[in-house]
């Protein structure tokens, strides 16, 4: 028998199947990571806007009476802001539908300037 320096058909098929298994498991994981990244970016932007809105209730007296609810569009996402008074704190909450089409809510509290 002669000495062969090439790959056999079986070795090539096994290598190709391993490559396809790796690719088919990485594509869904990458898609999930991209969606979660978008959700976190949305949340950061919306909570940052909630913080800014809450500051008007905390620092100056020229704000609408509590409880108050308003709607605002932030980077293409409609967010509903609501502000209420709880004991000595002012509670600001925002509700929106995130990139994965699920409802999301975040709340912040603050002491008003006296």
From TrEMBL:
One Pfam family, short name: N_methyl
Q: Which residues form a coiled coil?
A: none
List residues traversing the bilayer: 12-34
UniProt keyword Ribosomal protein, yes or no = no
For this UniProt record, the keywords arranged alphabetically read as follows:
Competence, Membrane, Transmembrane, Transmembrane helix
The compartments listed are: Cell surface
Q: What is this protein called?
A: Prepilin-type N-terminal cleavage/methylation domain-containing protein
| Originating organism | Lentibacillus halophilus
């Amino acid at each position: 028998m002669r000495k062969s320096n090439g790959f056999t058909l079986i070795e090539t098929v096994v290598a190709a199947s391993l490559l396809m298994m790796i690719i088919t498991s990485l594509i869904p994981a990458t898609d999930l990571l991209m969606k979660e990244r978008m959700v976190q970016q949305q949340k950061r932007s919306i909570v940052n806007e909630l913080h800014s809105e809450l500051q008007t209730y905390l620092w100056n007296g020229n704000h609408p009476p509590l409880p108050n609810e308003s709607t605002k569009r932030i980077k293409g996402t409609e967010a509903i802001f609501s502000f209420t008074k709880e004991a000595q704190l002012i509670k600001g909450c925002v509700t929106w539908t995130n990139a994965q089409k699920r409802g999301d809510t975040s709340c912040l509290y603050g002491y008003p300037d006296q």
